[in-house]
Amino acid sequence: MILFSLIYLCILYIHGRPLAIARSSPPSAQFHCPRQPNVVLPLSRINDGICDCCDGADEPDGACADDCEQVLAAERAARAQAEADFAAGSQKRAAEMAEFTDLLKETVAEIEQLTKDELPRLEAEVKSADVEVRNAKLSYMNGRFAAVKATVSDAIKDIGRVATFEEIRTLIVTTCHLAGELADANGDNHSRNKSTCLPLRLAGLDLAFVWEDEDIVEYKATIRRAEANGGDMMLPEVAELLVKNAQNGNGMVTFGRDDSKGSSAGSASGSSTSNNERDYDAYGDDDYHRYHDDDGYHHDEDDEEDYHRGEDDGVEGRAVVAADEDDQGAELESDENKEARRAAITSSIASARLSASRSPFVSQANALKEKIDSLLTESEDNATDGEDVDEKIENDDEKEEPTTTKKEDAEEASGADTEDPAFDPQSLQMTRGALDRRLQHIQKGTSFATSAMVLLNALEDDHGDDHGGLKQDMINLAVMTIYHSQLGAGDIAELFYLAMMGSDPSPAAEESEGTCASIYSAICPPTVERRSGVELPPSLLIEAAKTRCGERVAIVATECSGDSSYLPSSISDGFSGYFVPQQFSENDTLGKVYVAMNSLSALVDTVSETERNKLDRDSALNETRNKLRNLEDKIGGRDEPKYGADGELYGIRDSCHAMESGKYEYEVCIFQKATQRDKGQKTGGTNLGLWAGMSRDEETGQRVMKWNKGTKCWNGPARSATVYLTCGAETKLLTADEPSTCEYAFTMESHIACDDEFKQELGL
Ligand code: MAN
Questions:
Q1: Residues 6+ apart with CB under 8 A from 369
Q2: pLDDT digit string (tens) for 711-757?
Q3: pLDDT at 540
Q4: Each residue's pLDDT tens digit, 608-635
Q5: Helix boundaries (H) for 258-299
């Protein structure tokens, strides 16, 4: 209260004489100015030569002039002003507080209604929408499982019974192989993981299991299964993945926890780089030859022997690696074991008939590339020698169609190549590019096949001695891998025949190795084999094989008959016996096998519908939550109301108040920041701090507003500002000061300070 009194005293001191001294209960020895009952002087002020009383009663007679009329008038005017200010200010204050009270009442009621009724209702709706989504996904999954089951039993009928384990395994691996080539040819990037056999992964999902931690350095993977009565994985997890893929259509495919990693997970665990990834990226570079011989494929007879499986179920002959693992019973696998497993896989793929059928193309392509490179280098050399090749290249560049690079004349071919008038660097580059692209397809095929081996080995390990279960899984996987491979019946028919031929190279194949004799000489004309009364391959594939033979045998004959010293002008399909796999088309005979899979779209639609509903429910809930937040903001929060306990700051919320002082203009904004600017400066300025709240001085009861954490003072504290409030009709800054460097003090009058305490203080 002392401060209040002091301020009031200041106001009432005019003409060097006090107008009144408020509220001082006079101690015994005091002097009362007779005309001014409120002016009470200590005795020391008597006869001190200063005229305190307006009539000079505190000094000897005649020492002071009597200016009581003036002083008392000013005192009356000041008091009248204070009373008027208080009347206006307190009225305004009361009105604002009443407005706030109404607002508070209304808003709190609304908040309560939302919190008690609407929010729980919406939350329940979201929850049940969630359940609906989950159920829809599960029913999609079950529908899919049923469709897969129907597909497999339709597709396989008795074939599964008569086909050997090894045949089924080969079919899966080769399907992956061709799927890799096809994916690369289509420029597919459906998975972030580019080297894993995606169709096999998806087939796994269709059977409710996923492979994880596939490692193409260590050639290992693990399996997680979802089973209704347990398993390592929850069925909803599988449902989630299946639905995601179904909804994405041809978009990004997802197949489990590790689908975002490269399949080269192992590269992180050791210093060795993922060789498959590197081979894939740099096919034809030196890296490639580390794992492949000059044909492009690595052969290792010993390893190959190790890898062969028993004819009937193949399980007895499981890779020696796995058997050794059991013997050791050790967690840590020996380096030899790893190496053996690696060798078993690489050699098995390299020696497969499918790979062998690519060998002539690979060696021919590499030879041609070398030739093209040397021609191009020579042409560059000649050009720098100042010959007219430059000009010729420029002219050629302008031609719309590249000219043929095929040598017209065998003599010329054996002679000075660079002087060949038909020489066209641009065309050579295109040929080289076409060769590279195909080599890359082939490499991706090898990657996928390797992946298939790794994944299938993991499956075998997972089954342990359950040979029957393993074979059943393999049959199911074969059917579904074919489905996901997107390969047409022609290619699948070829693979079926290849699988039925077994893994021992046929005499014909051995003879033709490295030559352009294609697999068609082994397959065509297609024959039917009967095993225990079952025809192999199934009739629709025989038809497809017949068509394929019809299309290809003649092409192979032409494409393989050319003189290998010629540079072809373009690389046609079938060049050196290599045909890019063909994608499943709408009228494909294989379509019949997979009709059940097409009946699932309604279930996917249901999932999407429930998801849309869930999104709607989510946004309704969010809307209400936002509404609640806004309502709470409106009343300044519920727990620590920013407008003060009685809401007195509500009336001046977010208002800014400025004044000039010295060479600066100061501005303080309620709930915002305080700023110092040079006079005339419109924007920017020095930050004196952010709003830090209003409190009451414990001793004086005066309202004090604070801003702190402003711009740091050079060699001093962060700037801060303090505003001392007193009652006034308007809210405005009265004084500005910097009592201590970078600490700013202001006085302000505002109606918000016109409360009952102030009234009492002034004795109004
Ligand atoms: C500026 C202003 C002053 C302050 C000095 C401190 O000039 O903010 O108010 O005292 O900086 O260096």
A1: 284, 432, 435, 436
A2: 999 988 999 999 999 999 999 999 999 999 999 999 999 999 999 99
A3: 87
A4: 999 999 999 999 999 999 999 999 999 9
A5: 275-281, 286-291
SS3 of 90-128: the string is HHHHHHHHHHHHHHHHHHHHHHHHHHHHHHHHHHHHHHH
The Cα–Cα gap between 303 and 508 comes to: 22
Whole-number Å distance, alpha carbon 725 to ligand 1 midpoint, is 24
Rounded to whole angstroms, the Cα distance separating 154 from 274 reads 40
Mean pLDDT check: name the lowest of 3-17, 153-167, 316-330.
316-330
- Both tokens of 137, joined, read 């996904």
The HSE-up count of residue 199 (CA atoms within 13 Å, CB side) is: 31
CA dihedral 217, 265, 479, 502 (to 10 degrees): 0
C-alpha 631, offset from chain centre: 34
Q: Where in the chain is the domain with CATH 2.70.130.10?
A: 650-762
CA dist 424 and 99 (Å) reads 89
Tell me what percent of the chain is helix, strand and coil, each rounded to the nearest 5. Answer: 55, 15, 35
- Of 700 and 562, the one with more pLDDT: 700
State the Cα–Cα distance between residues 315 and 293, nearest whole angstrom.
30
Of all helices (H) and strands (E), which one includes residue 687?
A: strand 686-696
Helix (H, G, I), strand (E, B) or coil at 530: strand
Ligand 1: which atom is nearest the Cα of residue 688?
8
Q: How far is the CA of 686 from the centre of ligand 1 (A)?
A: 9
Q: Looking at residues 438-455, what average pLDDT do you find?
A: 93
- In this predicted model, which residue has the larger pLDDT, 621 or 28? 621
For residue 549 the two structure tokens come to 């033979």
307 — pLDDT class (breaks 50, 70, 90): very low
Q: Which of 9-18, 26-35, 263-272, 426-435 has the highest mean pLDDT?
A: 426-435
CA nearest ligand 1 atom 5, residue: 742
Measured in Å, residue 701 CA sits from the centre of ligand 1 at 31
Q: How far is the CA of 742 from the centre of ligand 1 (A)?
A: 6
Residue nearest (by alpha carbon) to ligand 1 atom 2: 742
At CA 383, angle to CA 379 and CA 387, rounded to 5? 110
Report the topology of domain 650-762: Cation-dependent Mannose-6-phosphate Receptor; Chain A (2.70.130)
Half-sphere exposure of 52 (CA within 13 A, CB side): 22
Confidence of residue 11 (pLDDT cuts 50, 70, 90): very low
Residues in contact with 99: Cβ distance below 8 Å, sequence separation at least 6, in sequence order: 650, 651
Give yes or no for a cis peptide into 37 (omega within 30° of 0).
Answer: no
Structure-block tokens of residue 270: 């050791």
CA 683 to CA 665: how far, in whole Å? 11
With bands split at pLDDT 50, 70 and 90, how would you rate the model's confidence at 190?
A: low
Pocket test for ligand 1, best of 712, 719, 740, 742 (most atoms within 8 A of CB): 742
Question: Which residues contact ligand 1 via a Cβ below 6 A?
Answer: 676, 686, 713-714, 738, 741-742
CA distance 126 to 164: 52
Q: What SS3 string covers 331-361? A: CCCCHHHHHHHHHHHHHHHHHCHHHHHHHHH
For residue 686, what is the enclosing H or E element? strand 686-696
Pocket test for ligand 1, best of 660, 741, 744, 746 (most atoms within 8 A of CB): 741
- Percent over 70 (pLDDT), the chain: 76
Interval between CA 713 and ligand 1 midpoint (Å): 7
Strand partners, 735: 747
Q: Is the pLDDT of residue 188 over 80?
A: no
The pLDDT tens digits for 211-224 are 988 887 778 899 99
CA distance 588 to 490: 9
